[in-house]
Structures are given as C-alpha cells and as structure tokens.
What we know:
This protein is α/β, with parallel strands linked by helices. Helices cover about 45% and strands about 15% of the residues.
Amino acid sequence: MTTYSPAPDLLKNRVILVTGAGGGIGRAAALAFARHGATVILLGRKVAKLEKVYDEIVQTGGAQPAIFPVDLSAATDADFEAIAEAIGYQLGRLDGILHCATEFENLAPLDQECLADWVHMFKVNAAAPAAINRSCAAMLAAAEASVILIGETHGHAPTAYWGGFAVSKAALEAYFKVQADEWSEAPMRINLFTPGPVHSPQRMKTHPGEEKTHLPTCEDMALRLLYLIGPDSREVRGQFVSP
Ligand SMILES: NC(=O)c1ccc[n+]([C@@H]2O[C@H](COP(=O)([O-])OP(=O)(O)OC[C@H]3O[C@@H](n4cnc5c(N)ncnc54)[C@H](OP(=O)(O)O)[C@@H]3O)[C@@H](O)[C@H]2O)c1
C-alpha cells in the first residue's frame, strides 16, 4: 500500500463523510479526498476549524464541501437521523464514511478516572460511529460504500494508564467485528484501520515529550485512507488494516 498511486479522479462524483475533519488525520484525509474529486462532508465539534478546512478545499479547486458542526458526545439518535436526512436531501448519496473523531482525556491510573469521562469517551469513540453508520445504512448500501473505523493499539492491547480510552477503543473493535459480520453479504463494507504512531494533535497529548520528526505524518495516513475509501480496495472488507 505504501506505493499506492491513486488516480487523480479516484473519488469523482463521490460523497464522503469525514468525522473529526477539523484536525489531525481527519483533516488530512478530507483534503486528500477532495483533491481526488470527492465532495466531502466535514463533521466536527469546532466550526472555526471546519471552516478552515472548507476554505482550503475551495481554494485548491475542490468541490464545495458541506459542514456539519456536531458534538458527538451530546448527539442523540434523532440528531444522527437528521444528519442522514440532510445528507440525502442536500447531496443525494453517500459513498463512504471515515470515522476519525476521537476523544482522549489524559493518561492516568484508573483510580483517578471518573464515570463521566468514561461515558464521554465511550460515546465519541465507540457509540457515535455505530449510530452514524446505522442512520446512514440505506444510503451506504445504495452506493456500495466503504466505511472506515480508526482503531488504536491500546484498544487491541490495553496497558496501564490508558484507562477509559483503551476500553472505548476496545469497544470500537468489538463493534467493528459485529458490524463486519452483519455486513458480510451487504453491498457496503467496513474495515478497521489502526495507524500506529502518527504526528498529530492527539499524539501531542499522549506523548508530549517525544521527538516526533521521525513519525509518519497525517498526510502519510491520508494516502492509505484514500486506498481504503475508494474503489481500488473494493475487495477489502471486514479487515484489520495497518499501514
Ligand atoms: N495520532 C496517533 O498517533 C494515533 C495513533 C493510533 C490511532 N489514532 C487514531 O486516529 C484517529 C484520529 O486521531 P488524530 O490523531 O487525528 O486525533 P486528533 O488530532 O486529536 O483529532 C481528533 C478529532 O476529533 C474531533 N473530536 C473530538 N471530540 C469530538 C466530539 N465530541 N465531537 C466531534 N468531534 C470531536 C476533534 O475535533 P475538535 O478539534 O473540533 O474538537 C478532532 O478534529 C483517532 O481515532 C485516534 O485514536 C491516532
């Protein structure tokens, strides 16, 4: 995959929803998807950050994106249904979803964590991707869409101090297996991509003192995500994918 060379119009006429599109891997992927022809729906918590990505896309000749400011920790099933309805009404189709939004508090021993933080991380990191997929399922099926979840090493192999974050990412992995099984014969597909260490705002929080210049960048990840979201990976379904 490292030598992947996507066609310039790989995602022409396709509509892709990216959560966490205001920064980090989500931002880099949204820009890459737009550069390759997609109309991108930018979903995130902070409007100003989403507007910056919007401007970058328009200034570089990309299709006009849509912006959905949503706090995934507060959204309800009704909100997700409204989002799906708005996508159908405004854009008419949905060819893929990249779930990049993630909530991370800080590294701490379990006895210093609290229930509210756990619920918060569980909602954003595990329950919201499931709820979004559920509300968009009809459009995803109609478009034979590609859905990408982003996993985390500590969700797979939890260790001390990763607390509720690790538990929420383990829950995401369990959801992934259930959903992939249920969609094994469905028109749409789902994969879980675990990037490993990436030079992003989240990494600044998890490893503040680390020298980061040697780490892969968000743009490196965007190339892998282009492959997974587009038609070149149509045979890849229900897979744990790493760079
Ligand atoms: N970076 C790494 O080394 C690394 C390693 C392994 C896995 N990952 C995974 O890769 C994915 C992307 O991570 P990243 O490094 O790009 O993280 P990031 O830079 O922290 O970006 C996370 C995004 O999630 C959004 N977000 C947070 N809480 C939200 C909420 N309640 N509602 C809506 N949006 C919310 C943020 O938007 P606002 O800024 O608007 O709040 C931000 O745009 C995550 O799933 C992460 O676990 C990253």
